[in-house]
Amino acid sequence: MSNCVHEPAPAWRSGIAPGIFPSVGHGIALFRRPLEFLNSLSAYGDLVEIRLGPVRAWVACHPRLVHEMLRDTRTFDKGGPLYERLRALMGDGVVTCPHGDHRRQRRLLQPDFRPARVADRAESMGEEAESVCRSWRAGQQVDVGAAMMTLTTGTISRVLFSDSLDAARTAEVRDCLAGIVHGLFARTVVPVDVLFRVPLPANRRYRDAVARLHALMDAAVAERRAGEERDDLLGALLAAADAGKDGVTPREVHDQLVSLLLTGSESPSLGLASTFSLLAQHPEAERALHTEVDSVLAGRALPASDDLPRLPYTRAVINETLRHSPPGWLFTRSTTREVEFGGRRLPRGSTVLYSPYLLHHAPSSFPDPERFRPERWLSGEEAGGPYGAMLPFSAGSRKCLGDAFAMAQSTVALATIARRWRLLHPPGPVAPVRPAVTLGPRSLVMICEPRGGGLDRKSRGAGDNLVDHT
Question: Is 136 helix (H, G, I), strand (E, B) or coil?
Fold first, then answer.
């Protein structure tokens, strides 16, 4: 998705964001109206200074600056308030580990996310999608956010644990993640530790959710050690740890499971929930999606791996959702040395932020950025802008390990569900999405409307004959 062009560096503009509050800095603005605050920063420069609590930080607002940072992972290592909090949760897994250990970890995990393995999993992705909508009925109100979390947790758990996470534990993981993501965001934008040591109910809920998630992972490892070997990522990690291969330790096995389960379920589920919400608000895009899915699947309930290249509009819908409402909307880096960046001399240990949301909503890169328009991703359009502004999975050597997996899963899930159902918003205004550590609707109640679409009778849900499709 990157169309980054290499040109002589411009004369960067730098500035300071107004509205600093004592002690909390810009934390109040980031917490209360984060998207509006971020989108306001470009007016003050390409690199803008803000305050996170008492700490100075800088936001890179130009996509070329962001690419410069993401290419130099030695200088701009994963760090800052977000990753400090994530390390407390995930340890030093592939998502949060420092630069020096990343290549080893990525090589260890990459085989399970290569295109050939992703294609092999298309059927299981479809099965998970079909399982969450199988019991839906005409006119039923469904919590789409919870359903998509069940779907993505089931899919990533097959990669990690085969099928050893049952429905009860999948639900518990979902509950843990709901408590964790809200608490992480508060701890990132107001990094004042003393506030989160106070025994308030919100702080207790966060600590309890973290403890439960770690206990679930420990239980999964213990069950596997007591049971049979399986060809999944947990099996590969345990084999490497037992053989002393690549320096893998039992602690790293645990950290990788927590990291991949959290990132492989939370962000994709929010992306899918946002997709259905946006489609319900844009009937022209929804009709185009249904036309393509009905034609390609031709009466089959589930897409196969060789159907994926034949679903360009479905993929464009996913891409446009990731542009319009990227689940990963704010990230931090920390400088490992003094560096000239964006026209400023940043000292070692400086926090630099970048926001895919800010980049994706810049009119200079995406005309009419607030409009949901999947057609901008079809052939012939330079959708990524002149400097590679489309960054839903980051870039450089630390680009998301599972980007191809996430795109395939989302495409298969969308095609599977849209083949059978329309999801409609209840009457009344649609509530705006409020970001936490990720962006997307966590409680999204929608109404099920069955579709005919040429499905074979055997493929239809039990409730499909309860309504008049005319």
Answer: coil
